[in-house]
């Protein structure tokens, strides 16, 4: 049997739950219209809470996702992933016959079961209670979301869970893409899930002091930090052959994946490594930088990230950044950490499908240290052939994905 | 300088010494923090102590990027603390 040639990978389904609502369309629409899902948030367990907003899933959406009787073995992080996966699978039109060994799952998470971990520690620490959740271990483990998704659909191929902080989802999507491209599986459910808006987690983010107590304003002169988010994004990836064989509707092609490590500082980013990561993705896609019409930046709104990322973008796209639209949609959905890369790839694919670059909300003034006007405050109609999404994580782990409008002949 | 501000400055200098783990005698307002080997992790500790004592939140961000010397840090902390006190009043 001959070794299969590298295979083209296409996207046939999208699913998301986020602060913008249930569904990939809700997310895409909110990012295009510039409607923020950031809401007030407060924690009873916190005596001190300086940051009072987050990209939180609305209570009514949460009730719908969790159902009337919450599952005893599932955390919100698993329920979010399942809700997103069901939507993506339904859109792709997959049936039982399409799963089994030929389908993998690659769903990352930064924190895993943060709710169970946080609430059990709190109970143990504050009350000294020995009556903790006996299902805590299988709920907390990072791979719970990936495992529940594989069980739901009977996907018995490889199941992965990468926990690489803010690059978890982008790397998970890239790994799924590689499994298909190498001929290991025909399709893969890929993405990331995060349900980290718990008192203890929130407080330690506050203490790291990278969150703003004001509005999140990526690339703005007066930006002052990020806003946390939560949710899940899942995509159905398939080999072009498998998608065509079952007559699937192809949304776009996933053609480039780059990932690397700064191997430098745990928290401080390195622009040279971020640009090398983008170049790796371009090389795999066989594209030039000028082919990319839109970049969904990591764009957290912290001084360090935004200065670093724009410097990296200039190295790749040229000093003037002409011909490429760049924005951060984090003011709309928040920084969803381990789910961020999936939500943002879906947003970038939304831009490709609608031929419209989504805006950077709350943008006020160009920062002279950055010199970038990032599609400020209103979407911009623009012809797009290919789009890029960046994730630049703590730990110095970078990941870039490129999606292209699908053309049968390349 | 008001007495309050003098007290505040003294308390803040003590805090920088303690949280930054440097000898108080080495700290003078004009010295760059880098020279005192006060790094980002120490900043976070100092800012946490400021929050605990005075209730003012300073993010490790825009405002902090121009801080070079001990005096810069004191100025920023004092302005944040005073703004916070005005808010509470």
Q: Brief description of this entry?
A:
The complex is a heterodimer of chains A (410) and B (89). With 410 residues, chain A is α/β, with parallel strands linked by helices. Chain A has helices at residues 24-33, 59-66, 76-92, 114-127, 136-140, 144-153, 168-181, 199-208, 240-245, 271-285, 303-317, 330-333, 340-354, and strands at 9-18, 21-22, 39-40, 53-54, 103-108, 159-160, 187-194, 231-239, 252-261, 292-296, 325-327, 356-357, 380-381, 386-393, 397-404.
Structural descriptors:
heterodimer; A: 410 residues; Peroxisomal Thiolase, Chain A, domain 1; 2 domains; 11-stranded mixed β-sheet; two-stranded antiparallel sheet; 13 helices; 19% strand; B: 89 residues; mainly alpha; 0% strand
Report the principal-axis shape of chain B: globular
Strand and helix order of chain B: HHHH
* Structural domains of chain A: how many: 2
Strand content of chain B: under 5%
Average pLDDT over all residues of chain B:
85
Uncertain stretches of 5 or more adjacent residues of chain B: none
Radius of gyration of chain B: 12 Å
The overall pLDDT average of chain A reads 96
- Compute the number of helices of chain A: 13
Spans of at least 5 consecutive residues with low confidence of chain A: none
Overall structural class of chain A, as computed from helix and strand content, comes to alpha/beta
How many helix segments of chain B? 4
As a percent range, the share of helical residues of chain A equals 25-40%
- Biggest sheet architecture of chain A: 11 strands, mixed
The named CATH superfamily of the largest domain in chain A: Thiolase/Chalcone synthase
Task: Give the full name of the CATH homologous superfamily of chain B.
Answer: ACP-like
């Amino acid at each position: 049997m001959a070794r299969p040639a590298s295979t083209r990978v296409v996207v046939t389904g999208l699913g998301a739950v986020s602060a913008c609502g249930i569904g990939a369309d809700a997310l895409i629409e909110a990012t295009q219209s510039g409607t923020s899902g950031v809401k007030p948030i407060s924690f009873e367990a916190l005596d001190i809470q300086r940051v009072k907003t987050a990209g939180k899933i609305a209570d009514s959406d949460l009730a719908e996702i969790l159902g009337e009787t919450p599952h005893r073995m599932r955390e919100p992080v698993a329920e979010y992933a399942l809700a997103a996966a069901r939507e993506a699978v339904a859109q792709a039109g997959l049936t039982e016959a399409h799963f089994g060994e030929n389908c993998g799952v690659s769903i990352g998470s930064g924190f895993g079961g943060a709710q169970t971990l946080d609430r059990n520690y709190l109970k143990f620490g504050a009350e000294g209670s020995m009556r903790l959740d006996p299902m805590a271990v299988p709920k907390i483990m990072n791979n719970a979301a990936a495992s529940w998704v594989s069980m739901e659909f009977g996907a018995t191929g490889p199941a992965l869970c990468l926990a690489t902080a803010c690059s978890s989802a982008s790397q998970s999507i890239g790994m799924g893409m590689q499994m298909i491209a190498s001929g290991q599986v025909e399709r893969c459910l890929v993405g990331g899930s995060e349900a980290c808006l718990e008192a203890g987690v929130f407080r330690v983010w506050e203490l790291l002091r990278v969150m703003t107590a004001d509005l999140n304003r990526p690339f703005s002169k007066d930006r002052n930090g990020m806003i946390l988010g939560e949710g899940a994004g899942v995509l159905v990836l398939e080999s072009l052959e498998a998608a065509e064989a079952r007559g699937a509707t192809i949304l776009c092609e996933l053609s480039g994946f780059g990932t690397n490590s700064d191997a430098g500082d745990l928290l401080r980013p390195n622009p040279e490594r971020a640009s090398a990561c983008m170049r790796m993705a371009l090389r795999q896609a066989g594209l030039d930088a000028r082919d990319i019409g839109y970049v969904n930046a990591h764009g957290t709104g912290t001084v360090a990230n935004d200065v670093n990322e724009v410097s990296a973008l200039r190295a790749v796209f040229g000093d003037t950044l002409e011909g490429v639209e760049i924005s951060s949609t984090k003011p709309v959905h928040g920084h969803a950490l381990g789910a961020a890369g999936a939500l943002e790839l879906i947003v970038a694919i939304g831009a490709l499908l609608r031929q419209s670059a989504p805006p950077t909300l709350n943008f006020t003034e160009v920062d002279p240290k950055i010199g970038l006007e990032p599609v400020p405050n209103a979407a911009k109609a623009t012809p797009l052939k290919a789009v890029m999404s960046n994730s630049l994580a703590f730990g110095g782990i970078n990941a870039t994905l490129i999606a292209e409008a699908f053309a049968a002949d390349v | 300088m008001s007495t309050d501000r003098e007290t505040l400055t003294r308390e803040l200098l003590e805090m920088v010494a303690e949280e930054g783990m440097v000898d108080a005698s080495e700290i003078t307002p004009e010295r760059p923090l880098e020279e005192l080997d006060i790094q980002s992790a120490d900043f976070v500790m100092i800012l946490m102590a400021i929050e605990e004592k005075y209730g003012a939140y300073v993010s490790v961000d825009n405002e902090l990027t121009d801080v070079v010397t001990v005096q810069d840090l004191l100025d920023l902390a004092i302005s944040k603390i005073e703004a916070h006190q005005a808010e509470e009043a």
